[in-house]
# Entry
Amino acid sequence: MAELHIIGQIVGASGFPQNSLFCKWGIHTGGAWRLLSGLKEGQTQVDLPSTGDMAYWSHPIDIHYTTKGLQGWPKLHLQVWHQDSFGRCELYGYGYCHVPSSPGHHHVSCVTWRPLGSWQEQIAQTFVGGGPQLRSPDLIYSGADRYRLHTVAMGTVELELGIIMRHFDRYGVES
Amino acid sequence: MASSSDLREKLRKKRRALQHSLQVKDDVDADTQALVPTDRSQSKETAQRDMEELTAGEEEPGDTLRRNLKAQRLRRRRKLEEASVDDKSMVEPFHETVGEVTAVQQISQSDEKPVEPCVVSSPAQSQRGDLPPRPQAKPVPGSSHSESSTMRQRMKDKLKAARSKAESLLQQEASQDGPASRLQSLKDRHTLTRFDRETDADLRGGGDDHPSSLNVKVKFREAVRRVRVDSKSEMGLPTAEEAYNFFTFDFDPEPDEETRKGQKRRTRPEGENEEGEDGGDDDEEKEEEDKEEVTEVDREHQGEDEERDDNAPLMRDEEEELFLIDQSADDFLVFKRAEYMGYQRRLQSENELLFTPSFLTVPASSKVPENMKPRYLEEEGLYVGERPPMSLTNQNILENRILKQEQGRKWFGDDGRIMALPDPIKESSTRPPLFHIEDDLDPALQTVYRKALVSKHASQYISVGGETNGDYQLDVDVSGLIFSHHPLFSQEHVLGSRLVQLYDQHLSRQHRNLTEHLTTKLNGLRNTIGNMLEVHGGQRLTPVMQQRISEYKQEVRNTRRLRDLEQEKDRTLLKGIVKIWKEIKALRDFQRFTNTPYKLYLRREEVERASDVREYEAEIQAEVDELLDEMEEDYQRKVTEYRRQQEEWKVWRRKQRAKNKKKKKTQSQLDDNEDDEDNDDDDRTDGEAEPGPPKPKPPEEPDMEGVEKQVSEKASRIRRKPGEPILVPELTASGPITPNEQCPRGEFARREDVAKRSIFIKVLYNDKEVSRTDNRSLNSDFRVHFGQIFNLKIVNWPESIKLQVFEVLGLSTTLLADVFVPVPESSILTGSAPSEELVFSSNLRVMFDHEAVGSDVPFSFEVDGSNRQTLLTSGKLSCSVSWAVGEDDVPLAPPTTQPKPMYSGLKQLDAIASIGASGLNDMKKLGEWATESRLDPNDPNNADIMQLLKVASSGEVTAPDYFRLEQLQEEFNFVSEEDLEQSRRFRLLRLRNQEVAEFRNYKFVPAMEREVTDKVFEEYERRLKEGEIVDTKGHLDAHRALVAKHLHKIRESIINRFLIAKHHFIMSDLVQEEQVPTIGILGLNLFKLAEPKRPLKPQRKERKKVTAQNLSDGDIRLLLNIIRAYDIPVRKPSVNKPAVTSKSTRSFTETLTAGQSQRATQGSDWLLNQVQVRPFVEVSFQRSVLQTTTADGPNPCWNEDLQLPFSAPNGDYSTANLQSMKDEIFINIFDEVQYELGGDGEDRGKEVHTRLEKHWLGSVKIPFSTIYFQSRIDGTFKVDTPPVLLGYSKERSLASDGGYDAVRSLTEGAFITLFITIEPQLVPGETIREKFESQESEGLLLASEVFERDAAVHFPDRPCLTTVININGKTVFITRYLRPLNPPQELLDAFPNSPQEATDLIARYVSLIPSLPDSVSFAGVCDLWSTCDQFLTLLAGDEEEHAVLLCNYFLSMGKKAWLIIGTAIPEGPTTYVLTYEQNRYLIWNPSSGQYYGQYDTFCPLQTVGCLVSADNVWLNTQAYTSPLRIRFDVTKAKLWKPFFSRAFPNPGLSSVQPEELVYRHTDQAAAAELQDRIEKILKEKIMEWRPRNPTRWNRYCTSTLRHFLPKLELSRGRDVADEHRLELQSLLGDYRISGFPLHLPFSEVRPIVEAVYSTGVHNVEASNVEFALAVHVHAYPNNVLSVWVYLASLIRMR
# Structure
């Protein structure tokens, strides 16, 4: 029975307009996957870097999956949030990336985007914060016709993931 | 000015000189070339060469080739150079070389420059040391050449001479070192030429070049110096002034012409050089093409070299010029016209070079291959795409150009046109335009604008859901308040408010109109019954009908009773109203003014007398009939019952008789004819033997007559008399109030006072004031209307909402009352929330000197002052608190349930997530989901769902009864679901992740499936399976087994609760922040610096605390310091002779005399045998055993440190695990006894064999958890010694023989002083903060929180407890646990005359209930308090339960008793009982049954935190906490702070304890059975522990012991020891006996076995040892069992 360990960390994020950020993350898998241990979603702390653009979280991820089949390989979805000086939180970006499917250490950068919203909303956002959010955040990784959504590119989230695969070769999956 | 001839002359001269110099230069050039490699561009070249060098190894052949070429070229060049001197007219302008020439010119010009300034004015150069020519150059300037030419002439001559001299010198020098090198260079030139030198120089490094070039310079300078010296000697030095002028004079530039000429002359040869070379090279151009650049560069460098290296000759030239002629550098320059090629010429030349394709159409013939015609595919019907548009001209040009190319034709297609792809640009955009319309957008794509929100609930428990983290808003509506009593009430007001109350009650009753309702119901029921009976007439009723009728009748009875009750209430209420109204009227008359506007009208409704009477009568009649019916029925039933019973009885009697007869027959034939009496007699005796049914009594006839009377009496009491008008009271507030002026002074003052007051209300949310209402003045009717609504936007979870009523008088405000408003449910929303009336009251004592009645002041309505009453300020506050509703009708209430998962939106797209996997089989659900989530029917992903739905809805085709979302999944699956489920490893992993108890701390899960055995799960599965099955085997007692199971379940559920609670983190759990030092601390530290150093006074250093995470086995040790012991029992010499003292002398024994007599008897041995006892201490903990050395005497002092290793179970050092450790430290005191063995045979007398035996004297048990929580234990503990120790007696010190004894009378026994700690110190875990739900009122909980917090702040070391958690996990106020409860009657009966004895017995009874600390089982979570009945059912509990039970017993016995919440050794925080009897306080340890006087130094209680009685809690506010030093008088407010005080009175909390305890009678037979079983088990165990030696049992001794044990139980282990010993010794004189009885409360067998094992009696190794074991179980009521085990070893003396 094939097992997959995902051990790593969400290192941090850079390239966002502001750098006091935190991140909500989760791992989405298909129906064939079973969580054996570990937390499959969470939230990082808020990092307020005094220098530099990059916010560091170093948030650990340690998940152990087993699977019946390959379908629905785990995807990591992220939401980057910004906490402003008043302690208010606003969404800064959605993003998702596939968990690497080859064993070893991987450096993954996940680019993020955020809905743009109408011009009124944009103006409101400039002055009072907040911003448009998706009604259904699973759109991040489901492929509905997303082109109709106006989005802005935001920064990237850096991840370091170590993948350990076990017994995949028994089922003819070469890694 | 010099004439032209002069000039020409000069020029000629100059030329000559130049030529001369050139020759010289050439020499030097060659010389320097040979000597010095290129210098200035050295770095460039070296870089280049480095590169070459790197590749040199590989490119050896190429290199050599190049070298050869260079050598050749050099040779050639030299030749050319030589030739070029003569050959001047070789000018052949080549196109390519023109540029080069100019380049060379530039270089030469630029190179010239440094020379020029030297001549003209170059202070920089001039500063370079002592360059000679300068001072002499003074006359040089051209402006002054009008000076004497003679001088110049002279100078010229001189210079010439000097120059020739210098030349010769140079030549000499050159010949000195030059020839060698030149020779060498000449020699080398053939093969290696310069290249060799280059590399050479390379190797030497760039730095080395300079010296060589410097050498030249130096040489030159020397030469110059010589010249100068010469000239100086001849000419004399220039004056300082001249020198100054030279440096500062502004020289005019020299005429250009000369320079130009000079330049020309200078450059030409070089240019010729180049050209010549080029010309020469012409034939070899091809070969050297690639090298051209290199050579050129080389040459340039060379040129530079020449300039540099030629410095010397040039300078010489200059000098020459400087001194000889009036020439300047301009002589060498040439002015040239700008190069320009005429336009036409250029066009011409360009034409030759460039190709311009024509833009004429190319004839088709040239485009297609020859002899072919263009072929048009389009005409042949083939599709040809449209070409991209292109202008014809461009196309033509392109075609023309292509045709010129080689193979240009291949670009043309068959049709003779350039091949082209069809136009790729589409006509219209294929991407649909973006219409950003919200409605049109896929619902999944829609965005919501969310405001930036503060995540405010981080620390509170309001959960931040992904979607719902909006605002929460509470609306607090304070509408007003009404005082039901106010200090300023006048007497009339008091009555008035009462009237209003009653009237309100009346109105509400009328509104509900229960009486009417019940009456109609009653009538209805009666009618139905009547109808039913009527319909069926005389027919026989079916059983169903009968059943129904009887039910109806029952109903009628109930309804009637209720109606009667209601009617009575109505009537009394009415009466009350009328009475009060009358009182008011009387009062108004009396005081002659009115204060209240109340007016009561009694409206009469006349009724028709006749019908009323009829109704009344009918009603009574109906009731009477019913009653009679019922009675009749009842009677009938009883009669039938009676008959049945009688029948039974008769049958039984007959049977009995028959039996008797049979018996008689068998007994004897004689008694055949027995009379009835005899028979009866027998009958009776038999009946007594086996009781039969008693003889029934016939029922009484009902009293029919009394019924009517009763009914009419009742009717007259509760009902209106017939004909009496119906009175309807109406209260109005319209009456006139006497104006102020007409009132007497007292009343006037009161009214004035009222007018001065005003009221406002503060709204406090979570104890913080959030807003307050306006001040509203108090009216004469004492109603205040606010009508204000406060919208509270809340951030924190609402804990309490409080309204404070304040009264303002002038500037002072007083708090009247706190009103707690319950936090509304989240379903209570604004608009729908009802206004609540909350009653408040205050116990402020207010007195006035005017008419007002005041508050908490007794007053009376009567004139004579009788019937006094006291009223407290009270009132009703009407307000409502509700959650606000947001704009879009969303309630702004925090969610009550757990937040949804982060991505709940996922559910919309994933069917399984949305409706659950099981829902997939349900077509309807699936359909609902499909419509709800607006699935796109055209999406191929959804095709199968859609089809399925269609099929299902049409209903024609039977849909498959399964449905798969990922239909191809199955094929690709690696394994099936079952395999996955069966994997043991995965199961283990998952269980561990779920924190299932068995696997919670499982560290390593094996990597291989086969390594995970099924055994791992056995326990878990068994637990799952055996949830209900009770295993009675391990417990010997079915009841206890059940209890254990129950306890286990409770524990389980509570642990689960706390596991969940443990995952709630707060900030301080995660972030550890060092306290920023404040000024105060800093200041203190500064003062410390100034403190005098006191090296001899050691300071205590705080030990470092270690958090439990990073520990491993072996890191932790347990340190024990065993200091000393007191009063250890001493050995008695083995008495060979029977005791001298007879029993009679002992009848008045006290231990004192016993001791003396003992000593007297031992007299002879005493001197010989000094050692009374040799005790040592053995400590065992977690299987490791350590012991001290042996000390002497009954008061030994060891002072030894023992270190025990500590390891946590499973290696898990987490706080939770450490807290739940159940290990105990056993500290056993043994006596080391030496026995001499007779040597065998011949050795006798020579050798002495001794055997050491250890005899158990006593033990102390300390649970590890205690040490863990307290981090150290230090003190003197009482050693548990058995009541009887065979062979030992209590040695009492002489001091205790004296009068001091009285003080210590209560503390007999041995003591041991210990110090225990853990190294390193572990940080005990904090108790878990979880709010438990509670049924206590909000105010009480808040008050208790405040009380406890205050206590913690002011007295941090005093445990304070006001609320506890009951067994259901709810918070309960502590006083509810205390209530007098009856102890078992038989215990009270045991000592009817001696209350003291009875008290002891009861304490003993309580202590016999086994103790089970819950802090161990519940992982340090909290104490759970069970009520006494629960405690007695569970038969296990903590100290608290013992204490509560004991306290309740004492209370019921009429003692004054309190609970003490404090700390004790070794339990830690615990609960004791305090009683007050005979003017002294006694402290009871409930779990041991012992009591101590208040001033007992050995009392284990160390700290008294608070006292609890049934109605209050007092906190110890005295300076000390030790019971020795405090006073227990709780009435002293200074010493004890009460919880309930005048400010916060006890609301009358009801007890949680039952009314009365019911005790089960003890089953003596079961006890006996248990006794046998324990004895058997113990005997088996002892034999098991002695595998090597045979175990013999001394039956005789055993039976003696067995007889002795009950006595011990009766006397509770006291005062029998000596008698018993004597008895034993007389019986078994020949044996040396050591043994003792153990006493334990019974819970399970295991602890008993452990206790026996720990005494080590079985360890006796002597061959002739025998054992005796007796067990006695004494049963107390309610299955409380006291177990005695008597264990002795006997060794035959001879």
Summary: Chain A has a mean pLDDT of 88.
